[in-house]
Write a structure and sequence with these properties.
This protein is an alpha+beta fold. Helices cover 41% and strands 19% of the residues. It binds ligand 2U9.
């Protein structure tokens, strides 16, 4: 029986020594030391031994089992260490490799320009007012001195949702709503940036959806010279301190008198170039004194209060400022276009 146990130990240790991985080692353990293994079998047969032989063989069987277990433990440690060394070698990181730059987004150029304009007017004491993009016929037209059959309504084809509701064609209804909330009490000093919608065929200079920034100041003793001062400050801050401005007479139903503002060309300083179409001047915005009808409709006494208003298209401002030749670039979301404005 001792010989059989000795042979099993030799056989097991040989197999342990040759084991290639931990799984094979586990199989060897089950095969030799498990309940159905040969050592257990040998021990089961000890009943047949004499009383003198039994403790001797029992002690030897324990010795064999311990020897195999030690062999298994030593091999297991060896295989684990080999596995760790292999993984460490495979997973070596070359810390000298240059890092991969993280992809970083940036503000859309139109957002940058709108925020620049907002900051400029905030610094002059204006606050920002917002309103709904789905408007009523009343606030979009009627309250702005454009009654139902006014010919100026033909000037802008609109997206009507029902006879009563439409997508706003300008941000002026925001100003009309704000004035109404003031219940005839000044001052009102707001700008209203936002999206507007017009039924237009998109091309390089037209988009069915675009942005507007309008401004409105209503108070006692507000004059055209105040408008001129505010607009001149805006033009210089936006396009350079050396800019000159000029106001030309114009017409809008909601302002009287109405003007259009040009700035001296920032490219040729007035000598004439392709940007200013050889006139030396670039049209930037429209403006005027708020029409008394508009003041009255919003609850202000037009004998006591006067106001000025202006409106501009930030896409046009951005196109001029950055030399962009097509309004559709702002809405195409082509990453090659957007990337160029990373540091703006
Ligand atoms: C109220 C009263 C008056 C806003 C004004 C303009 C002149 C103007 C256009 C410029 C290019 C719009 O973006 S654009 O298409 N706007 O020329 N807007 S005065 O006048 C108002 C607004 C609200 C209650």
């Amino acid at each position: 029986m001792k010989d059989r146990l000795e042979a099993l130990k030799v056989e097991a240790l040989e197999k342990i020594s040759a084991a290639a991985d931990l799984k094979e080692l586990q199989n060897i353990k089950v095969a030799y030391l498990g309940k159905k293994g040969p050592i257990t079998e040998v021990l089961k047969g000890m009943g047949k031994l004499s009383a003198e032989e039994r403790p001797v063989v029992g002690a030897f069987a324990n010795e064999v089992r311990d020897g195999i277990q030690q062999g298994l433990d030593a091999k297991s440690t060896q295989l684990e260490e080999a596995e760790i060394s292999k993984r460490l070698a495979e997973e070596t990181i070359d810390v000298s490799l240059p890092g991969r730059p993280a992809k970083k987004g940036s503000a859309h150029p139109l957002t940058s320009v709108v925020e620049e304009i907002e900051d400029l007017f905030l610094s002059m004491g204006f606050t920002i007012a917002e309103g709904p993009e789905v408007e009523t016929d009343f606030y979009n037209f009627e309250a702005l001195n454009l009654p139902k059959d006014h010919p100026a309504r033909d000037m802008q084809d609109s997206f009507f949702i029902t006879e009563e509701f439409l997508l706003r064609t300008q941000t002026s209804p925001v100003q009309a709503r704000t004035m109404e909330k003031h219940e005839g009490q000044g001052p009102v000093k707001i700008i209203s940036p936002g999206k507007v919608y017009r039924r237009d065929n998109d091309d390089a200079t037209h988009s069915h959806q675009f942005m507007q920034i309008e401004g409105l100041v209503v108070d006692k003793n507000v004059r055209l010279s105040d408008l001129k001062g505010v607009l001149e400050t805006f033009a210089k801050k936006m396009f350079g301190e050396e800019r000159k401005i000029r106001l030309r007479p114009s017409f809008f139903p909601f302002t009287e008198p109405s003007v259009e503002m040009d700035i001296s060309c920032f490219k040729c300083s007035g000598k004439g170039c392709s940007i200013c179409k050889h006139t030396g001047w670039i049209e930037i915005l429209g403006a005027g004194m708020v029409h008394p009808n508009v003041l009255e409709m919003a609850g202000f006494d037009s004998k006591e209060y006067t106001g000025f208003a202006f409106g501009m298209g930030p896409e046009r401002i951005a196109m001029l400022k950055y030399g962009i030749d097509d309004i559709r670039h702002f809405y195409a979301n082509d990453i090659r276009f957007l990337k160029q404005f990373r540091n703006v």
